[in-house]
Design a protein that fits this description.
The complex is a heterodimer. Chain A is built from 18 helices and 19 strands. By secondary structure, chain A is α/β, with parallel strands linked by helices. The longest helix of chain B has 13 residues. The chains are: A alpha/beta, B alpha/beta. The interface between A and B is large, with 86 and 61 residues.
């Protein structure tokens, strides 16, 4: 029991405590489990072997996103039989256990972390889990959301609870105004660069400060999405009027008097004045620039105006070796200006940056231009709903006219478990979340950037500082 | 889950920091629907080149470390994706212990559920073990979960800490779901009341 002023995390924690057995982790109630084809089959198998069932199918939702091809032809005829078996296994499991599935032909299909919020399944104050580390995305709504392993997926299916030890709290305040051209993605890349990929291990981060509050819900989701890349268990942002405006009228949002009552409850969630955090960090928003990752870990980032660092400048031997290995894999020389790095591929999409606002931002840069002849570029909307919305706004036409491929929704090249994959040695500007070795395909080289930076790199053929990008209007396009 | 008490084994040194789960088990092996058989794919992209030719420089290809059940690695081991396949692959390959200065949270939890003991030692201690395992032929360690100690025959003695409950589960090989169901009555009571909080329901019944 926590007395006195409480943080957002502590309030959610307390409201979900089923039991606190002496000397054991606490038992936490889980409001919603999201399921997908890759991390669930062994969990259902485990249930069957133990003769157990799903305790609460209404608190589960499933979709296909990781394996699914992103071309119409690819979806109609899935060549990869092992992937196809994984998807048909999910279908059977959902049928057997009574779980709602948004399959490939559903208008609600999409990346699990994109459809949760857009359907209004994700709500402030909830506990949400998924067998996927980027579950932290949902924290943008003030929900405690975290990734779990398959044994835990099985545990939640069977009991709707999870044994959890309480995380430490870490408040990261980004204060002040972002400079024009600096995005949510740049905020989170800067934070990971500053604290490292293990900088928040064991912690739940609460992102706060005026720069975070000024972000749209899409931007907040981008920030929370990458909390895990700083090692955090989850990321949280206090719900506010923007959160409520986003949720109002969504398919699974309450309506009428229930809506008013729900908002009144959600308004109790933000951290109380005087509540204590285990750690705190403040970042001045005005110091941030557009960022590009240059290495093989999301902490290896630098502003676009900088150069590839020199391993000789590393503070210790371990760091130096790690840097040398990264530069060798990335085929980069120390001192190379980031805006001189030429790329072969561009991927705009993923649970980090596959939402409507991301596509609008990329389209604003791409409008009236042509993708460089050296680059192959693709835009993969995060969900069917994002795709329809973008098409209603004519964004698809802007991308197609510029020479981008316009695809069907899925995880796509973020993790290359589907046909979208880098060839060995190919260099990609990617709006996804991980630049690990081989993440986008064996031998592939990933540079993490914002949608704006990715679109500009597609056109220029190398990274450019989008703050100097001449945005073209329709009239200019005709003269281009 | 197999109970685990003491492991004595030669030690494989993996001298890298931030070893992520994409390296431990690359995504192409995540499409299976079974829990077993991942050992052959452990560190796949580091063990062999794109043409499938083994890299003799990689630790698991070095005959000196054949049969190792203890792995020593740099800080933040197991970062990145939540895939439990990483723990399955380590266990299936034969590893029972990983020693590192720090571990990522989700991997930490996954390892415990698959009978893998994660031992946190200081950077200096890990550096010493890394050096010894790399240079001394047939270098062995004994890791005891009962005494919470790591010892060699060459003067290295270290204590480590494991959460008491985690230790109990590993020693007894206990199933987590079974443990939770001890609280089923409390859960029923809690859930009945919690269900009234409609603003915390995913699908609000209108």
């Amino acid at each position: 029991m926590i007395n006195g002023p409480k943080t957002l995390f502590e309030k959610i924690w307390q409201q979900h405590l089923v039991a606190e057995p002496e000397g054991e982790p606490s038992l936490l109630y889980i409001d919603l489990q999201l399921l997908h084809e890759v991390t669930s089959p062994q969990a259902f198998e485990g249930l069957r072997l133990a003769g157990r069932t799903v305790r609460n199918p209404n608190r589960c939702i499933a979709t296909v996103d990781h394996n699914i091809p992103t071309t119409i032809e690819g979806r109609l005829n899935i060549v990869d039989q092992i992937a196809a078996r994984q998807m048909s296994t999910l279908r059977q499991n959902c049928k057997d256990f009574g779980i709602e599935l948004y399959d490939v032909d559903s208008p609600n299909q999409g990346i699990v972390h994109i459809i949760g919020p857009e359907l209004g399944l994700t709500k402030p104050g909830m506990t949400i889990v998924c067998g996927d580390s980027h579950t932290s995305t949902h924290g943008a709504f003030g929900a405690l959301a975290f990734g779990i392993g398959t044994s835990e997926v099985e545990h939640v299916l069977a009991t709707q609870t999870l044994p959890q030890s309480r995380a430490k709290t870490f408040r990261i305040a980004v204060e002040g105004d972002l400079k024009p051209g600096v995005t949510a993605k740049d905020i989170v890349l800067a934070i990971i660069g500053k604290i490292g990929t293990d900088g928040a291990t064991g912690c739940v981060i609460e992102f706060a400060g005026s720069a975070i509050r000024s972000l749209s819900m899409e931007g907040r989701m981008t920030v929370c999405n990458m909390s895990i890349e700083a090692g955090a268990r989850a990321g949280l942002i206090a719900p506010d009027e923007k959160t409520f405006a986003y949720l109002k009228g969504r398919r699974f949002s309450p309506t009428g008097a229930a809506w008013e009552a729900a908002v009144a409850e959600w308004k109790k969630l933000p951290t109380d004045e005087g509540a204590k955090f285990d750690r705190e960090l403040t970042i001045d928003a005005a110091t941030l620039e557009p960022y590009v990752s240059w290495g093989t870990s999301p902490g290896m980032v630098a502003p676009i105006t900088a150069a590839v660092p020199n391993p000789a400048d590393a503070p210790n031997e371990i760091e130096r070796k790690s840097l040398e290995k990264a530069l060798e894999y990335m085929d980069l020389k120390a001192g190379t200006k980031l805006d001189a790095i030429e790329i072969d591929r561009v991927f705009i999409g993923s649970c980090t940056n596959g939402r409507i606002e991301d596509l609008r931002a990329a389209a604003r840069i791409a409008r009236g231009y042509k993708v460089s002849t050296r680059v192959s570029a693709m835009v993969v909307p995060g969900s069917q709903a994002v795709k329809s919305q973008a098409e209603n706004e004519g964004l698809d036409k802007i991308f197609i006219a510029a020479g981008f491929e316009w695809r069907e929704p899925g995880c796509s090249m973020c993790l290359a478990m589907n046909p979208d994959i880098l060839a060995p040695g190919e260099r990609c500007a990617s709006t996804s979340n991980r630049n690990f070795e081989g993440r986008q395909g064996r031998g592939g080289r990933t540079h993490l950037v914002s949608p704006e930076m990715a679109a500009a790199a597609a056109i220029a053929g190398h990274f450019v500082d989008t703050r100097n990008w001449p945005v073209r209007n329709e009239a200019a396009k005709e003269n281009a | 889950m197999e109970p685990i008490r003491t492991v004595t084994s030669i030690v494989a040194p993996l001298d890298r920091v931030n070893v992520d789960t994409d390296q431990i088990i690359p995504k192409q092996f995540l499409k299976r629907i079974e829990r077993t058989g991942y050992g052959d794919f452990l560190f796949y992209d580091w063990r062999a080149n794109a043409a499938g030719v083994a890299d003799p420089g990689f630790v698991l290809n070095d005959p000196r470390y054949k049969g190792a059940r203890i792995l020593v690695a740099g800080k933040n081991f197991g970062c990145g994706a939540s895939r439990e396949h990483a723990a399955w692959a380590l266990a299936d390959y034969g590893f029972r212990v990983v020693i590192a200065p720090t571990f990522a949270d989700i991997f930490f939890s996954n390892a415990g559920k698959n009978g893998i003991v994660l031992v946190r030692l200081s950077e200096e201690q890990v550096a010493e073990l890394m050096h010894k395992a790399s240079t001394k032929p047939n270098y062995q360690l004994t890791v005891s979960l009962e005494d919470l100690t790591v010892n060699d025959n060459d003067g290295f003695h270290a204590k480590f800490e494991v959460d008491a409950f985690r230790r109990y589960c590993l020693l007894e090989g206990l199933d987590d779901i079974g443990l939770t169901l001890r609280h089923e009555k409390a859960l029923d009571t809690f859930e009945a009341k919690h269900n009234e909080n409609f603003w915390l329901k995913a699908k609000v019944v209108q």
